[in-house]
Each structure stands twice: as C-alpha cells, then as structure tokens.
Structure to design on (526 residues):
C-alpha cells in the first residue's frame, strides 16, 4: 500500500490561514488502512483546525468528508457540492489524490494534509516498512523475494557492502541489511551460484530516473 | 605503461601503500606536506574520495598534486556521488592527468557526513564500477556501448572487508570482485587477526590469492580514544578488546600503537596470499616512515 503520515498540524494551520471555508477530504483506500487520512483522521483534523482557529480568534467553517478513492476522477464527483462550497480543500490522500483533486477541480486549490512516505507494508501494529520503489523492472526473482533496490540503503545489485554488520545496515542499527537477508536466504536455498553471479548495472531508465512515467495499454483503452 | 604499484606486485616484492585524506579546504600545501612524509616509504598512495561522506578536495585533483611530487597516486572513486556519466568522465580525466591506479569503492552513506540531506547516487554499485573500468580498458568501450577514441591503461583496485557480515559470504564477495575485473585488493584495517586469517583461509580455498594480490589494511593506533572511536563509530570495523586493553596498559600509547602495527605487518608477511600492506595513517601520516622501517620494508623497490 501507499503509506503516509499526517503533516504537523501547525503546518496545515499555516497553509489554510488565508481561507474561511475549509473542506478536509479523506480517502478510503491506503491512507485509511495506514491510519493517516481516512474518515476518522479527516474528522479529527477538521476539529483540530476549527479549534485552533477559534483559539486564534479567527473562527472558520470546517467540514470533513471522505471519498472512496481520491486517485480516480469518478470517485471525486461524490464530493462536488462540498468542494464547491469551500474556499480550499485539505486533502488527506497521498500525493496522487492531492493531484487528481487539483486536476478535477481545477478552479479550486487542494492542499496536501499528508506527507506520502513510501510504498510498503505494516510489519506490526504501528510499524510500516518500505519495500518497493516502483523501479519498473522487478528483480525479486533474482534476490529471493527481498528487494535490494528499495531495502538496501545504497540500492546495490551486488551486495552487501562493507558496512553490513550483525545483520544491520550501516545507516542505522534499527535497519535490517537487505543483502544480509538475501545472502542468508540464498544459502538456505543452496543457491551459492546465484550469490557468486556478477550482476550488470541496473537500467534505471524504467524508473523515475528515465523521466516521469506514462503507461499506455491499448488492450484496455476505450 | 604499468603503474609503479603494478610493477612492485609483479616483482613479487611485499608492497606498501599509504593513504592521504584530502583537506577540507583548497590548501595545496597540506597535501604536499603529507605526501613529502610518505615519499620513498610507500609504492603508491591512496587519495580518499570524500571519505565518510565529508566534503573534501577532490581525490583526482589531489592525486595530480601528489603525482607532480613524484609519488604514485591511487585514486579512490565511490559510487555515492556520481552516476556512470560522471564516473567515466572522471576516469578519462584522471588518466589524462597521468593517474594509473583507481580503487573502486561503494562509499559510506551520505547520512554519515556533513551533507546528510544529499541524494545518494549509487547508479552503479562497487562491483559494477570495477566491471565498468575493465570494459573501458579491455574493450575500449563505455558502459553504454560507445567506443573510446583511444585506449586507456589503468590498474583496477577493489576493497574487501573481512570484518563485515555475513562472514561466510565475504570471501565469495572477493571472488565476485575478481570476476568483475579487480587487479588488486586493499582490505579494511585489521585488528581482529584471527578473523582475518579465517577469511584468508577461505580466500586460498577459492584460489583467489593466486588471481589477485591482496594488500592487508593497517591503521596505526595513536590512542585508546582512537581505538574506541573506530570500534564504536566506524562502520564495518572490528577492534577487539584485547587491543584496547593492551593500549590502555601501555605507558607510551603511541609507541604501543606503532609496536602493534609493526607486529601485525610482520605477521601478515607470513600469511600465504598476503601480497603487501596498505597503511592508513590518516591524521598520523608522520608515523608511516617509522612503521615501514621497523617492519623491515625498506628500501622500497625502484624501477627504471
């Protein structure tokens, strides 16, 4: 899923300072699951904004609403009336949702209420880990299902580097060395040959480094 | 034209390389001062490339300064700060300046250094970098396939860290680097000799010592604090307690540090497959002549 975290409240308060009617718009997908921008968080944020402005002596009208999916135009229509009534929208979706809102409601400004952190998974309650960079050329079959592009701090194809100690990355003792895990799994599955293989440099042109990406599928186009 | 280091290793002599850290300034005289100390005592001198991700004068520029003084540079290139365009360009520029030895390194993560907000490039990894240099030299070809307009001659170095984990993998990693095209190896500084010897055993079992000369890393310890700092703060380094205790107990810490280094070198000379030592006395360069002399490594071989 896409994992995100709410921006510090002070930052949101400052961003909406010039506005009188605010809509806080949640999203029912990934950010609901990672407890950053679902209906509950949209209500909480709306209340917090309202209180903060009341305290500051500049009362404001704040409403909240949540659409099923902010990253697709068809779901955004459900919020049309509320969006049109507001001076500004604070989106609690990921960066994709903030942008589809700005495209769909081009006459209105939608501001980000979250920082989109990464693509990852909940490792345990309250802990999320990044494990995919969307590089456009998956190598997981070569690395025992552990992504060195996302999970190695240096995105090495031939790792681990000399900074790997006790299974931890040199960047932080809280961070597993992805290549340590890969090597352990290769040894477990008796794939020493794979371990010895020298992999060529990665073609980064399929990743963001090749420029913003666009995907066209003729087979599903209308 | 072969590099001096290449000739020393080919002659079978026990090689000695040194290390200089470029200054955090543009003071040419600082590099010259340290290079003067090392001249005549080492076969080549490494110029570090923004080590521990701290911004310093360029390794290639400092290599040229050293070269002008009649000392042979070994330029370190990390994968952290440049992509394959920048690296290949720098290699061509370095060779044009007369630099012959290039050491391929991954590079410490930028979070260690004084620009922690920097983008870590890592377009290539260290093994890719070795293969890239080999392709440039042996096939006269850039990574992207374009032909170089003229051949280049370089002696390709790589590093090995027997003290990083997983230990069982470390000799295989050396095999990968040899397969990628490494001509010589310099290791991380050794304090845990027992672990180094276990690594060398595996290296010999894989026959790697016959394919590539290995220069064992030495860092002379100046103080108990320096030893503790390396134990706790330098990634991929093991400093056993017995070394720290020995320094602690010694009345003259510096003399004890020299003794430890000399004893280690003498022991390393007896290990099959160790072709030399790489002495990294950064911030204590002036001790190198004494260590080289007391270890019986003088005079250094000369070639016409």
């Amino acid at each position: 899923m896409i994992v995100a975290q709410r921006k510090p409240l002070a930052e949101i308060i400052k961003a909406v300072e010039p506005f009188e009617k605010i809509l806080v718009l949640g999203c029912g997908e990934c950010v609901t699951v990672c407890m950053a921008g679902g209906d509950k968080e949209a209500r909480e944020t709306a209340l917090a904004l309202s209180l903060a402005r009341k305290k500051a002596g500049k009362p404001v009208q704040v409403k909240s609403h949540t659409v099923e999916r902010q990253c697709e135009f068809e779901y955004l229509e459900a919020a049309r009336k509320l969006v049109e009534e507001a001076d500004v929208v604070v989106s609690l979706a990921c960066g994709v949702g903030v942008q589809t809102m700005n495209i769909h409601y081009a006459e209105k400004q939608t501001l980000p209420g979250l920082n989109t952190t990464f693509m990852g998974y909940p490792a345990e309650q309250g802990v999320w880990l990044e494990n995919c960079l969307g590089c456009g050329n998956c190598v997981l079959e070569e690395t025992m299902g552990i992504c060195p592009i996302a999970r190695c701090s240096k995105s090495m194809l031939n790792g681990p580097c000399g900074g790997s100690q006790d299974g931890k990355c040199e960047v932080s003792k809280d961070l597993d060395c992805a290549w340590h895990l890969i090597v352990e799994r290769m040894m477990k599955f008796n794939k020493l040959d794979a371990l010895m293989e020298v992999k060529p440099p990665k073609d980064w042109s399929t990743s963001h480094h090749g420029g913003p990406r666009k995907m066209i599928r003729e087979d599903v186009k209308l | 034209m072969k590099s001096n280091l290449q000739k020393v290793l080919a002659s079978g002599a026990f090689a000695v390389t040194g290390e200089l850290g470029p200054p955090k300034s543009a003071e040419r005289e600082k590099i010259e001062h340290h290079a003067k100390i090392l001249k005549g005592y080492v076969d080549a001198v490494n110029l570090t490339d923004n080590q521990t991700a701290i911004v310093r004068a360029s390794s290639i520029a400092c290599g040229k300064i050293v070269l002008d003084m009649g000392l042979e540079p070994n330029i370190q290139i990390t994968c952290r700060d440049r992509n394959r365009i920048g690296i290949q360009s720098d290699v061509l520029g370095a060779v044009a300046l007369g630099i012959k030895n290039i050491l391929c390194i991954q590079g410490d993560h930028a979070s260690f250094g004084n620009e922690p907000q920097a983008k870590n490039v890592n377009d290539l990894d260290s093994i890719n970098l070795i293969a890239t240099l080999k392709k440039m030299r042996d096939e006269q070809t850039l990574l992207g396939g374009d032909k170089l307009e003229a051949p280049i001659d370089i002696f390709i170095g790589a590093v090995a860290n027997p003290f990083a984990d997983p230990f069982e993998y470390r000799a295989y990693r050396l095999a990968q680097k040899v397969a990628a095209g490494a001509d010589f190896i310099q290791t991380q500084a050794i304090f845990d000799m027992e672990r180094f010897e276990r690594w060398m055993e595996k290296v010999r079992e894989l026959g790697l010592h016959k394919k590539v000369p290995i220069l064992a890393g030495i860092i002379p310890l100046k103080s108990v604090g320096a030893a503790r700092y390396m134990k706790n703060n330098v990634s991929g380094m093991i400093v056993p307690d017995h070394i720290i205790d020995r320094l602690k107990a010694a009345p003259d810490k510096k003399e004890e540090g020299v003794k430890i280094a000399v004893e280690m070198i003498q022991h390393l000379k007896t290990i099959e497959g160790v072709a030399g030592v790489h002495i990294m006395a950064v911030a204590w360069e002036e001790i190198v002549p004494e260590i080289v002399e007391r270890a019986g490594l003088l005079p250094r071989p000369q070639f016409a």
User: Anything to note?
Assistant: Chain B has one domain: 4-294. The first strand of chain B starts at residue 15 and ends at 20. Residues 57 and 65 of chain B are 11 Å apart (CA to CA).
